[in-house]
Design brief:
heterodimer, A: alpha+beta, 5 helices, B: mainly alpha, 0% strand
Chain lengths: 168, 395
């Protein structure tokens, strides 16, 4: 949804951006001073004469706030929830290298869990992903494995997947 | 002037400036007050600084720096960027307040150049005090603030045209024509130079080591001021033009950063030296002019704010905020009076009256203006009932 952003120059001061807020019906004005300071004015109603809050920020603080608001530090909600539930375990998405010696083997034959402790719980592939991976599922070129394990186990897991050796 | 006198002066400037800041007042009236206290006129117990060649010279440097910065911040692009309010709001303010100023000027000095200078002194508000107030009183986010700043830009432009005239005008018609022609020639030559030399100048300044960068800019500034003075124009015009030329270069921000400190020190001394010449005993002669001018200023600026606000689609309360921000007078009034005091074509009695007027008038309007500005929203709520549309929007 496009926001109705309004830009005005303030000669001798800097630039001002104002826009109305959909939630609560207020209005925000952001002032960029020529010396780098930023002010955020918040009016509770669009027509109010007095702002109810004014935030003054240095240049570096404003950039930090901007990055936080812009979502640069954001992680998808589902990942956060999973991490919470798993405790010290984590879930990683591991692509199978195109020249992996494991291609053509079943999960049981590759014995990934037995040799590294990492469990493959799903396989992402075209056209149909495998949601509950079974020991009999065979690895194919282009697969991405969704795997659960402890943090230190993923290094050996990736190495094994890329280099083998596997008994056939 | 001895070092001890300078030390006392600077300490007093600091103390008064700081305490003015504590009360939300601008530093400009505080510096004038410092000059008034330490100067040779009343109160005489404290008279430790006498106007001399040294104080004159320091004040001249302050004037040059003030106008240099005005020029630096002044470019056509910025003027266009300030938007639709500049023309309309500025014209309303000019018509109302220059008109009322002329009435006072005519009443005080008759149809002379002194009367014209007085009109300009009354017309032009203080950008420095208004901008400080807008920041201090949290007004930057308000819609009507755009209108205030636009009007100030218009005033700066109008006063730039007036400066040269205050310093050198006032002779017969042919003399005035010569002055105007010289001024136009000088400004045109300066702008042409800036157009063709901007890039080489830019490269040169960019490459210089810091020490020589400062010297080069300072030399250019003082040189332009000196040339303007030699041509029979005012040093103010030269300094203003130096600023305009350098405002188009890529080193503008660097210059502002490096010279802020110089400007602040010398501008403080400029206002101080002006304060030295304020003679409270002259209040008997100019008292009625000051009283008349203060009333006219408050009424005129509030009217102009209301009318410009109405034309720009603002409410009455917002118009009141605009007018209140324009009541304080400061740097330009003092600059105009200083330039006029050096113009021998104005009668000596008129010149000393102008000086006494400008100092006391700035002290009074700067104080009233800041108080009005601080309370204007409260005042608006008392005076004007909320419009039905606004009440509807609220519910």
């Amino acid at each position: 949804m496009p926001v109705d952003l309004h830009e005005t120059r303030l000669p001798g001061v800097g630039v001002k951006y104002t826009f109305p807020l959909a939630l609560g019906g207020g209005r925000i004005a952001v002032i960029l001073h020529n010396d780098g300071q930023r002010d955020v004015y918040y009016y509770r109603r669009a027509g109010d004469a007095e702002p109810i809050a004014v935030i003054e920020l240095h240049d570096d603080e404003a950039r930090q706030l901007g990055a936080v608001l812009g979502g640069a530090y954001e992680r998808p909600k589902i990942v956060e929830d999973l991490e919470l539930a798993l405790g010290e375990l984590s879930i990683e998405w591991v692509p199978v290298p195109d020249d992996s010696p494991a291609i053509g083997l079943s999960l049981a034959a590759a014995a990934l869990r037995a040799r590294t402790g990492v469990t493959v719980i799903a396989i992402l592939r075209e056209p149909e992903p495998v949601s509950g991976a079974q020991p009999g599922d065979v690895l194919q070129q282009g697969d991405t494995l969704v795997a659960v394990g402890k943090a230190g186990q993923f290094g050996p897991f990736r190495k094994l997947l890329a280099e083998g050796p596997f008994e056939t | 002037v001895t070092l001890a006198e300078l030390a006392v002066t600077v300490v007093l400037l600091g103390v008064l400036g700081l305490s003015a800041g504590r009360f939300g007042l601008s530093a400009i009236p505080a510096y004038l007050l410092a000059g008034l206290l330490l100067g040779p006129n009343e109160p005489e117990q404290l008279a430790i600084v006498r106007p001399s060649d040294v104080t004159e010279f320091v004040a001249e440097l302050g004037l040059v720096f003030l106008l240099f910065f005005l020029g630096l911040e002044f470019s056509l692009g910025r003027l266009r960027g300030a938007g639709r309010h500049v023309g309309l709001g500025g014209a309303v303010d000019l018509a109302v307040n220059a008109g009322l100023g002329l009435v006072v000027g005519l009443a005080a000095f008759g149809p002379t150049l002194a009367g014209l200078v007085l009109a300009a002194c009354i017309y032009v508000s203080s950008s420095a005090i208004a901008v400080k107030g807008l920041i201090d009183f949290r007004r930057l986010g308000d819609d009507e603030t755009d209108l205030v700043l636009a009007i100030l830009v218009f005033e700066d432009l109008a006063v730039a045209l007036m400066l040269g005239f205050a310093a050198t005008g006032g002779g017969g018609v042919s003399d005035s024509l010569v002055v105007v022609a010289t001024a136009l020639g000088f400004v045109t030559a300066g702008l042409a130079v800036s157009k063709w030399l901007a890039r080489p100048l830019d490269r040169l300044l960019d490459r210089l080591p810091l020490e020589f960068f400062l010297l080069a800019v300072f030399g250019f500034l003082v040189g332009m001021a000196a040339i303007a003075e030699e041509l029979g124009l005012s040093e103010a015009i030269g300094a203003l033009l130096a600023g305009i030329v350098l405002s188009e270069t890529s080193v503008r921000e660097q210059i502002e950063e490096r010279f802020f400190a110089f400007r602040d020190i010398f501008a403080a001394l400029f206002f101080f030296v002006f304060g030295l010449s304020i003679d409270l005993s002259a209040f008997g002669q100019v008292g009625w002019i000051i009283g008349f001018a203060v009333v006219v200023t408050v009424v005129g600026k509030l009217t102009a704010g209301w009318a410009a606000g109405w034309l720009g689609g603002f409410t009455k309360r917002q118009g009141l905020n605009v007018g209140a921000a324009l009541v304080a007078h400061g740097e330009f009034t003092v600059i105009l009076a200083t330039l006029a005091s050096g113009n021998t074509l104005i009668a000596a009695a008129d010149r000393s009256d102008l000086t006494a007027f400008a100092g006391l008038y700035v002290l009074i309007t700067a104080t009233i203006g800041v108080i009005l500005m601080k309370e204007s929203k409260q005042l608006g709520r008392l005076l004007f009932a909320r419009s039905p549309e606004a009440r509807l929007a609220e519910s």
